[in-house]
Fold:
Amino acid sequence: MPEHEDSGGRAALVEALCVRRNAKRGLATGVLVAGVVFVVFVVLPSGTVRPTAYYGALAFVLAMAVAGLATAVLVAVRAYRLTQDL
Structure:
């Protein structure tokens, strides 16, 4: 099967599920959640024992995990709504 036919089907699916938009929203959600957690547990107490860079790395991991989860949920909701229209 030619590659351009296969990618057209994938591209149509990605477009129908609004993956780009949902990925942007998921990333924004992840960064917001990680920022709030970082501020509440690291900045406000100001008595952290370990270097702040460690907490920054943990905040990055939390942001990416929440972003991935939020994106997956948003895409799944979009897919569910599209199947209801069939």
Residues 3-84 form one domain.
